[in-house]
């Protein structure tokens, strides 16, 4: 599935180098797991600025493979299903079935 | 099973040290991501949607209890308490930290396990019949040869940078449970007219974008020449396989472009220069490796044990399980016990750490410490005494692993799909869960009979959808999940590739479409006719009509 | 470009000739395979040593009749991951018995030095900061190997079974 569906509202995502976790570039700087705290770019120039910050972070060996994720207007919700799964975790109703049925 | 010796262990220790150094160089920035990626892939470490994913090799699908516990410990300590068994007899962990990976490799090595060559453009983990050493129709244990191939192919200096990944499967039985016709090289042990055992060699099978059934390029190869012949094939492929387009880089494309006669000519010419040389397998060496696969000494027990005879009267559920999930063993008085990792509604192939640990105990108690992983994402205890079956069944039932659905509609193969995989177009696991839940009623499943559903999240076909009786392939249309459905595929000796039944179906209707297809089968079938046979007899058109009518 | 030979960095005394460049009367030269085939007699007759440069798509077998008179063959790794020259090297060494210098050129990376050495390369033109150290490290990666290769004629698997170390031959 296409990584990003193009749109004018974007956040920047990447994977953290040390643990691979999907993270988002935060409004306050740094990377966070919660897409709700991501810095939102509403036009092309600010998206470019965020990508430049991400590139510097790549050079410091903090994250890998940064890219833009397009959001639906007015909510912090990626347009692409792939990105929603990436932000919120697998939709699998949990191996879960087993983990809950056979507690440790 | 094969026991590692000090040399195997020294090799793994060296490999762990190398990898630890590579990870350290990456974390400190000495290596860039571009330089590091091929190195981590050679060690089975992918960067997936949510984290790193580690693919651990289970050579020819054979584990012992200690190894299963080691895998469980990794699931608990470094992951989220579960692992995912794959269609290549491997196990994957989905939530791995790069910084932990060297320690995980060391833990694996301590249990004689590794992740070498589970990814990358090299010779991958060699797969085999999951009933090896136990099957009634077996000529010889294929794992001896898998192990020899494992050793020869491990960090092979010439074949570590092939045009594309390379998969070899071996079967030693009359029935093909290893899908040898769909591998880059398939090897079938057989006995020739003189009573001598050797290999039939098939080349160029595969799934993915271009599904092809492998071609026989040598009907009988003496065992001693196995490695020389494989080296000859690899040489032709390494030099002439296409490298300009990854979708055309597998050996099946080369075989198709050259034709199988020309392929054979080139391989045999190369073999001429190699046969009888360094790679000749002398019988002592083979015997030594074979000795390490010596199975348990099982005492034939022709008189059925009382407990088994009596139990069906007491508990019909036991009888259903016995009929569905166990198979006759080559030694009378024993059964091969299959453990579908397909509880109703659960993700196919997933096992929790607790399940793995409990199974390790059961394998040691009842199964001669032998556990197999199947390409159908199930497990097997290959050597169980009939008298132990009732106790084993009770224990398995407590683990949720005694659902009598082997080969039935809920015994679904599904790849990780869009929930985990960066290459996916659509989700696989939730579709499997929904189908399994819809057909939860076991009486209904048994009435439908043998039916193999395989679901891949993209054209890479990790779940072998082309050879599913019902194959389901996830595609994307304008950002939405759709599924293409094929009917009539079969991986075994009557190998066939499924035929498309109609246009792609939106996610919301895929479960209903499977129901429509199955209803069609029930209407069309003759008494005793399997789903696959009905599809072969009537073709896909009548199914398509029903789907169109329901749409 | 640094050149490693015999485990040490050496000066490259060979002159690589382009297709149309006149052949000097003296000195050691390396010519492309096509030129060698076209001007074979003259090249073999001249004074000075002769080397041939092959692309990784060339059929190196065409050199078979002249191998004893060729001093160097340069093979190419155009990019990481393109492993055709590994097989060319083994065909030259093992099947055709080439004894001269086998030089790895192009994208010669540290993590492939071990494989190159085992396949029979004995000279490496590589843009690596410390080629000698990388080579030592590569050679020490594993105590033993699972399969016979060209530089280490380890008996099959028995190399391990017998517990013998089969070190990478120091070129
Ligand atoms: S078939 Fe595609 S989606 Fe599924 S695991 Fe393979 S690559 Fe990923």
Q: What would you say this structure looks like, in words?
A:
- The complex is a heterotrimer of chains A (104), B (551) and C (171).
- Chain A has 104 residues and is an alpha+beta fold.
- Chain A has one domain (10-101).
- Chain A has three helices and four strands.
- Chain A is globular.
- Chain B is an alpha+beta fold and 551 residues long.
- Chain B folds into four domains: 6-110, Sulfite Reductase Hemoprotein, domain 2; 134-291, 2-Layer Sandwich (Sulfite Reductase Hemoprotein, domain 1), CATH 3.30.413.10; 306-399, Sulfite Reductase Hemoprotein, domain 2; 413-550, Sulfite Reductase Hemoprotein, domain 1 (2-Layer Sandwich).
- Chain B contains 18 helices and 21 strands.
- Chain B has helices at 6-27, 33-42, 65-78, 101-110, 142-153, 226-240, 251-258, 260-272, 283-291, 306-314, 316-325, 353-366, 389-399, 429-438, 442-448, 510-524, 531-538, 541-550, and strands at residues 45-47, 52-56, 62-63, 82-85, 91-96, 127-128, 168-171, 185-191, 197-203, 215-222, 326-328, 334-339, 350-352, 371-373, 379-385, 413-414, 453-456, 470-477, 480-487, 499-500, 505-506.
- The longest helix of chain B has 22 residues, at 6-27.
- Chain B is globular, with a radius of gyration of 23 Å.
- Chain C has 171 residues and is α/β, with parallel strands linked by helices.
- Chain C has an eight-stranded mixed beta sheet with strand order 2-1-8-7-6-5-4-3.
- The model of chain C is unreliable at 153-171 (pLDDT under 50).
- The chains are: A alpha+beta (104), B alpha+beta (551), C alpha/beta (171).
- At the A-B interface, α2 and α3 of A face β13 and α14 of B.
- Bound molecules: iron/sulfur cluster.
- The site of iron/sulfur cluster (SF4) has 12 residues of chain B, from loops.
